[in-house]
Amino acid sequence: MTHTAKTFCRNCGALCALEVTVDDDRITGVVADGSTSPYGGYMCPKGLASIDFHNGAEQRLTQHYKRGEDGSFAPIATRQALDEIGAKLRDLLAQYGPRSIAVYHGTGAYRSVLGGLLERALVAAIDSPNFFSTMTIDQSAKWVTMGRLGVMASGKPSFRDVDLGVLVGNNPVVSHQTFPFGPGESGAPGRAFAAARARGAKLIVIDPRRNETARFADLVIQPKPGHDAAIFAAIAHILLRDGTYNHDFCDRFASQLDALREAVAPFTPELAARRADITVEEIELAAQWIGAAKRPFVGSGAGPSMSAHSNLNDHMIEVVNALVGGYKRAGDRLYNPGTLNPKPCVEMAVSPTRSWESGVKCRTADVGKIFGEFPTALLPREITEPGEERIRALISFGGNPVMGLGDPARAVPAFEELELLVSLDARMNETCELSHYVMATSQPYERHDLSIPGDALYPEAFAQYAAPVVPAPGDVIHDWEFFWAVAARMSVPLTLKYWNYGLDYAAIKEGMELGTDPDSPPDPEAMIRFLCQKSRVPFEALRDNPGGVRPEIEPQFVQSAPEGASGRLELCPPDIVAELAALLAEEPDSRFAYQLTCRRLLETMNSAYRDADRTRDKYPENWASMNPEDMAAEGIVEGERVTIASEDGSISGVVRAESGVRRGVVSMSHMFGGLVREAGSIERRGSFTGELTSLETWLEPINFMPRFSGIPVNIAKQESAT
Ligand SMILES: Nc1nc2c(c(=O)[nH]1)N[C@H]1C(S)=C(S)[C@@H](COP(=O)(O)OP(=O)(O)OC[C@H]3O[C@@H](n4cnc5c(=O)[nH]c(N)nc54)[C@H](O)[C@@H]3O)O[C@H]1N2
Ligand SMILES: Nc1nc2c(c(=O)[nH]1)N[C@H]1C(S)=C(S)[C@@H](COP(=O)(O)OP(=O)(O)OC[C@H]3O[C@@H](n4cnc5c(=O)[nH]c(N)nc54)[C@H](O)[C@@H]3O)O[C@H]1N2
Ligand code: SF4
Ligand SMILES: [Mo]
């Protein structure tokens, strides 16, 4: 029997609405469903790849595995695995307390909604502070900025209102990562940029590589990596010099303007231009456009958040955005006031909290939680540093942390010290290979989900509920079911709550008690129904309209700040003053001729889909892309294998010419290749750039972010293997 069913993709934040064809419990076709989605009909190659994966591509796991003493994996049944894991966690909790148990929330966990909520429910129920996620090895510079500068409660402007978008090290046309970090729309990003241009908006792209998004830009600036702080300090300098910042906004919502003026005084456009190897005119022009725009939005992506001085880069980018009032303003139309979780929107500043300075701290560093999480780069030390409360058990949920962390010489031995490592995944990735248990999980079209991750991000109010469209194969487990079942075996009752970033799970009052009888698991539909409690669209309407629902809402507008609101954005606190002074005094590192920068590929999602046929056809290697002039200068030819060496490690890579990559830069995607290289062997399936990064040197203050972009490297030709 053939039928079609509506659902949505869960690979990335775009949550594209899809219509799949189902033939005898197997998905045989997929098309984008533009009938209701606010993005219209759109999907990328990973939408197709997710169908293949459901059908068994990339050696999808359909049973769980347990690793034996000899390192080999043997199948284990669900019930047995849960009993053993539950017993071990119960013992650790009793003997060493809650801190002995940690979770790592990987990229695959963000859109497994019930799984993510029950993961938080478990951590809250046992009261462990050890919640780690990819965010602190990604763009937590944004969280640090929020903590040091404060936030505008109204949030960033809708892209539909923006007349100037500035994208710094962000490539939404490939990554679909945009709002709220940067201007754009996640679904059909190219369409949103084209529409913005058609209505007269301008775009500036600042990126060492002329990226795929740059084709929509009116101005493309290609600096050396790692100089965004200097560039944006110079832009702030110009805005203050010329008086082109938004005086009214700053008077009402910002403080420390004088300190900022003083701190950025030495950051002349000449200095920034010299350091970043761009022209003074480019900086002046960008500043002129930013100062003149009526509705600017200056945002950034992974590039500046991974490069040298990532926290300062992000802070200075946000300072420029604040100087020109790049937020939703009172009276603005609220295109998306939230559907599942409707929220009023008020134009007011919330002063910085510096959450990491108080409350429970890491064991190995004097740092507390950032947005409720500990820095992931500290995870290896939190495992290995001796002490009663060291981490002994880790649940890796939808992640590949040993690859994501980089520095395998430090990360791998730490993971090997764990008494219990459980991976929840459907791919036997490098972290699974180190795990005691690999729990094969169901895939998106086999489980229940709700568009909570998109609720505040869709450009217009919209919600979608996905019920399973095909049964799960083999003996697999739903992500949520794992957390609930393990908790049940620990006799720890879980409470499902509607959680969002910024909330403390334990402190949320309303919840659904789930019970601890292993023989009566909660009903996923009932859980989704609970999560729709506050929704503008009742659960039944979502269930009956699987293509999603756009609620009919009276036009809503951003409200003015309440009387007496006194919050302020602190533009230039003392630590920023000190970091700017240190940056000013910095000398260039002349030992390295190149810098390796991060990039993402349309066909992959970090380490997922790297083995999909479509990916391998196009990327048998994760090419090391270089400027042709650099290649000529080095005598390197297209397709040549070279050695790329940083202070911390070396890899070999296959060079490709890409004229859009600026000189002095090697642009390469991450998480290819294998974790462990046999001596003298040529990497299979590409190169693992994490070999070049370090979990000891170059870590940022506060979030301990490693340097994943702008890594200083040298390139050497390899002796021919004859
Ligand atoms: N197709 C696909 N989509 C993805 C992912 C994927 O793997 N594949 N991964 C997802 C994840 S985990 C994330 S975090 C997001 C990230 O999404 P984005 O932030 O858009 O990340 P990238 O696509 O890597 O783009 C980063 C850009 O920064 C530039 N850059 C590097 N260093 C610097 C620098 O020092 N300064 C400046 N100004 N630019 C710099 C790079 O050249 C690159 O073009 O994408 C998500 N979406
Ligand atoms: N050198 C270098 N290092 C980097 C980066 C870089 O640019 N350069 N980027 C950093 C960034 S931004 C990130 S986000 C991290 C990524 O680090 P991770 O998130 O740890 O790595 P991923 O490869 O994304 O792992 C995701 C896993 O989730 C699984 N998965 C997918 N969907 C589901 C699901 O629904 N349920 C379950 N249980 N599993 C699922 C996939 O099969 C995959 O194995 O790496 C960081 N590390
Ligand atoms: S952009 Fe691609 S990966 Fe992201 S949700 Fe849409 S189809 Fe899936
Ligand atoms: Mo990420």
UniProtKB/TrEMBL annotation:
The family database entries (SMART domains) matched by this protein are listed as: Molybdop_Fe4S4
A GO MF annotation of the entry reads: metal ion binding
Q: Which UniProt keywords apply?
A: Iron, Iron-sulfur, Metal-binding
Keyword Coiled coil, does the record have it?
A: no
Positions of the 4Fe-4S Mo/W bis-MGD-type domain = 2-58
Q: One Pfam annotation, family name?
A: Molybdop_Fe4S4
**Signal peptide range in chain numbering:** none
Highest rank taxon of the organism: Bacteria
- In which family does this protein belong, per the annotation? Belongs to the prokaryotic molybdopterin-containing oxidoreductase family.
Supply the name of the protein. 4Fe-4S Mo/W bis-MGD-type domain-containing protein
The record lists the organism as Mangrovimicrobium sediminis
